[in-house]
Description:
The structure holds two protein chains of two kinds. A four-stranded antiparallel β-sheet of chain A has the order 1-30-29-28, with no helix packed on it. A four-stranded antiparallel β-sheet of chain A has the order 2-3-4-5, with no helix packed on it. By secondary structure, chain A is mainly β. Chain A is built from no helices and 30 strands. Chain A has strands spanning 12-19, 23-29, 35-41, 47-55, 58-67, 71-75, 86-90, 95-98, 108-110, 117-123, 134-139, 144-147, 157-161, 170-176, 185-190, 194-199, 204-210, 215-220, 229-234, 238-248, 252-259, 265-271, 274-282, 286-293, 299-301, 307-309, 313-321, 327-332, 339-344, 348-354. Chain B has helices at 93-135, 140-147, 153-157, 160-222, 227-241, 244-258, 286-305, 307-310, 320-333, 336-349, 354-366, 370-383, 392-408, 412-425, 430-449; strands at 3-4, 9-12, 16-22, 33-35, 39-44, 47-52, 63-66, 70-76, 266-270. Chain B contains 15 helices and nine strands. At the A-B interface, strand 13, strand 16 and strand 17 of A face helix 4, helix 6 and strand 9 of B. Strand 13 of chain A pairs parallel with strand 9 of chain B, so a sheet runs across the interface.
Amino acid sequence: MAAAAGPERPQVVAHVQQALSYTLFDCKWVPRSARLLCLGSAARGTGVVQLYELRAGRLELLREIEKAKPIKCGTFGAASLQQRYLATGDFGGSLNVWNLEAPEIPVYSVKGHKEIINSIDGVGGLGIGEGAPEIVTGSRDGTVKVWDPRQKDTPVANMEPVQGESKRDCWTVAFGNAYTQEERVVCAGYDNGDIKLFDLKTMSLRWETNIKNGVCSVEFDRKDVNMNKLVATSLEGKFHVFDMRTQHPTKGFASVSEKAHKSTIWQVRHLPQNRDIFMTSGGAGSLHLWKYEYPAQRSKKDSEGAEMGVAGSVSLLQNVTLSTQPISSLDWSPDKKGLCVCGAFDQTVRVLIVTKLNKV
Amino acid sequence: MPVWLREHSWRQSGSAVFLSLPVPGVRVTAANIFCTDRYLKVSVPPFLFEAILYAPIDDTNSTAKIGNGIVFFTLYKKEVGMWDSLTLENASKETLQYLRENAVRKAHEKAKEETEAKKVTKQEHKKYALEATMKNKEGMRTAYFCVVSQNDLWRQQENLPKLEEAERKRIEELKEQERQKVTKELELWEDQQKYVENQKKVQKEGQLHEEVGQLKEKKKEKNNKTSIPSEETLKTRLKPTKGSGSYSMFSENLKEEQLPAPRSSGTIKINFTSRVFPTALRESRVAEEEEWLHKQAEARRIISADLSELEDLKEEEKNPDWLKDKGNKMFATGNYLAAVNAYNLAVRLNNKRPLLYLNRAACHLKLRNLHKAIEDSSKALELLTPPVPDNENARVKAYVRRGTAFCQLELYAEGLQDYEAALKIDPKNKTIEKDAEKIRHIIQGTMQNS
């Protein structure tokens, strides 16, 4: 039941709902089209990729592809617009890049990790961002690896725990700061609450912090600009918005945190058309739409004269409960403002339309 | 039969008639007066006064003042003029009857009209209120109460839930409209996408042709044919695919050339936030974990605080159990001081064991440190707080020892109390009974003496 609307608030309209016969882990829009992909795991332990097209208020199944291992995550981020290859991470720790027109043999494949790949992100493709196309994967074996589809077998960057350190699962990864050909940053969130920011240009750890609860999802508001904001969501219903423009030498980045959903916040996704609006999905099957407001001064000087960031504030635009099960995946369509798809653990994929985003 | 009132008096002016009617003894109220434009009646049982007026009056504006036993009417004439008399004389019974009935009928009609008028105003008020709610829901209630007259307030309140219904329906309609609008937009967009897809397909085919053409060209060149005709063919082939497709294909090639080489590999070694527990950090568990660590720290502190003194001692000598046994042995051999020392050390290491205190109490008794014995037995009893059958034995001992100590201090009353408590727990113990008896005698003895 949607919250009572002031007439100007965005509304979340459930457009189409489709019941699936497998566990859905990730859903993604195919760029420049009205098609979406559902990735998941069938009951018999194999991976499923289904391609649907949104037609006349229904989802029509165009293709169904079955793979040996269940698929956990996928991205189009590193693919060119013409080719639109899908990069997937599966339960066995393999990274595969598929051409959906000929999905029998992957275009690129590597068994990059020893355990399940929890999260994947791509940059440099789709006309977004500068520089080489790269894919980053974060896995339960505690490592984060960056791959270039032109380089076989070895990752371009490998972030692994020091020898002898007990490992912590990496739950989420995200690219950012890709505004020139050389600059690139990877942000990784772990299950013990660590967030680490790796700078790929200097191959070093740029910043780390701990938000006291397992980090479920991190995302920069834009991958292809000088890093502006980072949202990290965690267990126990909290998310943090970091202002990434000003890094203080000891205090790091300024942040504002908000409690919502009363359960794990599974995903955060920024609206591609407006980087200050983002949606969070919760473990109780709810979606919250938020708007970030910048403070009057984004940075100020502290007592020693070092620049320190000032976090703004977050306001709730709308919330809606769609399901009783966690909504584990969320994706905005890059082509139509307000169109998004979400997949929940009740084996349904829902296409939603968020209205009045122009007026926010 | 009612009593007719005839002792009225009246006078008149050009426009009004003043009539005073004495009504002795009874109270007149407004309900007793009935007046139409030609007929006036006052009926207060047992009295009755009626008058069929000479000429019509304006009954809405006429007034009646009810005073002490008298009613004073001020009747405004409809037509100005002097009346010959107050009532119509020489009227026959029928005319009188007719006039009466007429009057009553007229009164009824009037009443009807009034209710009609009221209804109409009520309707108008409702409409206005509805409009006000349409404009602003928050202002609804205030607008409402401003508009509605006081008399109708309670009746109007019944209509409030209906207005909320209307409001809800309106919101639902708005939502539906939005949904439909959005669905239409989406369909348009979908069609657009299909069109773009088709274009792309055409482009792709064009590309293929392109590539095929290029291959053919190359073959031709290999065969040393002039390139000019092939260029022409190239151009002709280009034309159909010209448009957004071709330039992007070119730009893609350019871009590929511009793409930087794959990054030189590197590894970043990371450390995770250090943590005592093997599980991951969870905010809700932080309090519990702090407590646990605190307790651990306490225990360690106690042990390590004695470390400096206990450096000489062997490992087993730090074990409270071993020390207890040692203490027991020394007690048995009669070395009470040494036993006390052993128990002291044991208590320092673990101050929650009642047995240690019990045994130490026994030692103190033997050493005649009576106060200390009492203290220790009390501590033991405290620690044995849940009085269950399991620690019966221990409790009996504690009471007995304390009792003995009290008696030896000549605090016989307290001693007796403890002995009786011991007896309560274990009534079959003869020694306790005997001792209790003894104490009672002593008490009675002292009481007799004093």
